[in-house]
Request: fold
Amino acid sequence: MEFRMQAIGHVESPYTSEEQIPKGRGAKHEAEGFLVLAPEFAEGLLDIEGFSHLFVIWVFHRSQGFSLLAHPPTASRPHGVFATRSPRRPNPIGLTVVKLLGREGNRLRVKGVDMLDGTPILDIKPYLSSVPEVDLRRGWLDEE
Ligand SMILES: C[S@@+](CC[C@H](N)C(=O)[O-])C[C@H]1O[C@@H](n2cnc3c(N)ncnc32)[C@H](O)[C@@H]1O
Reply:
């Protein structure tokens, strides 16, 4: 099956190259940026101000191809791509949780961006996840 999607906006990020983005376990993503919605989608932001955090679903638009085995920078061995956050995946979709700092019309000021400047946004959803810490398992990340 194939699906067609369109960007609803783009990210304004301080990062213009991949090397600038903190990587690896424990990397802190504290950079601020903007999620800029195209004017025709701005009405969809109604009432978003009440949420502290958002899921941003976006496209690794600068990635080329994919590999089913990924070798994250801090890993000592390869892992299946679906057990990683590698940008080189069959469907190059990224997912980031950001803190919503404010809204200026069709622009959301957020903290925690790990995307490159100009990254296309596919969707934005309120972050409501509530898996208790005690139930979380982090797989191979806890072996490294
Ligand atoms: C490890 S991925 C994680 C991204 C997201 N938090 C996720 O889990 O899907 C983050 C890396 O993707 C790369 N990246 C960010 N924006 C990108 C883009 N638009 N196209 C290709 N690679 C990108 C950068 O190297 C960045 O360090």
About this structure: DSSP finds no helices and eight strands in the chain. The CA atoms of residues 5 and 90 lie 15 Å apart. The chain has a mean pLDDT of 94.
